[in-house]
Amino acid sequence: MMKIGVLALQGAVAEHIRLIEKAGGEGIIVKTIQQLDELDGIIIPGGESTTIGKLMRTYDFIDSLRAFSKQKKPIFGTCAGLIVIAKEIEGQPEAHLELMDMKVARNAFGRQRESFETNLVIKGIADDVRAVFIRAPLINEVGQGVEVLATYHDQIVAARQGHLLAASFHPELTDDERMHAYFLEMVREAKQEGSPC
């Protein structure tokens, strides 16, 4: 069974664990960098991106997650997690992990009261994936190697670059595990590519 971690510095950790397990993986709550060695993939959940970034620096997760990514182990950033993995954040001099070739805007959909739910067409998954947007960021620009998976009103809300997956919304706040199943399939592919012949 694939071991999928959820970075437990902030955000809806238990909800991600529930959908990982519903999709057929083993969910692991990650609080230390030592736990990264046992994982096949990791989810960086929502919360407040500046706070998550500070906590990642405090607990040495920045370099450790960059090393995790260099091994081509899949990383999935949702909402604030999307901001954390981005190479560039609009209006900020520096980003956090600087992994995924995209420029993102924080709170692009407005404040808490502008939160909403909708069905999205997500490439490779389905045309009716339920998505919850809460103070959601947007992907403003993507590099050449980034595949756009979903848009909302012509704005990018989900994308993939190789072993990296990003979503502006909270897939964990629904009962729909298909986004997590897609990530598990990415992990399965990465394990097959990394295994010796």
From TrEMBL:
L-glutamine binds at G47, E48, S49, R106, I134, R135. One of its GO terms (molecular function) is pyridoxal 5'-phosphate synthase (glutamine hydrolysing) activity. The active site is at C79, H170, E172. Keywords: Glutamine amidotransferase, Hydrolase, Lyase, Pyridoxal phosphate. Signal peptide: none annotated. Pathway: Cofactor biosynthesis; pyridoxal 5'-phosphate biosynthesis. Its EC number is 4.3.3.6, 3.5.1.2. SUPFAM superfamilies: Class I glutamine amidotransferase-like (SSF52317). The keyword Chloroplast does not apply. Gene3D superfamilies: 3.40.50.880. It catalyses: L-glutamine + H2O = L-glutamate + NH4(+); aldehydo-D-ribose 5-phosphate + D-glyceraldehyde 3-phosphate + L-glutamine = pyridoxal 5'-phosphate + L-glutamate + phosphate + 3 H2O + H(+). Pfam families: SNO (PF01174). It comes from the Bacteria. InterPro entries: Class_I_gatase-like, PdxT/SNO, PdxT/SNO_CS. Belongs to the glutaminase PdxT/SNO family. In the presence of PdxS, forms a dodecamer of heterodimers. Only shows activity in the heterodimer. Catalyzes the hydrolysis of glutamine to glutamate and ammonia as part of the biosynthesis of pyridoxal 5'-phosphate. The resulting ammonia molecule is channeled to the active site of PdxS. This is Pyridoxal 5'-phosphate synthase subunit PdxT.
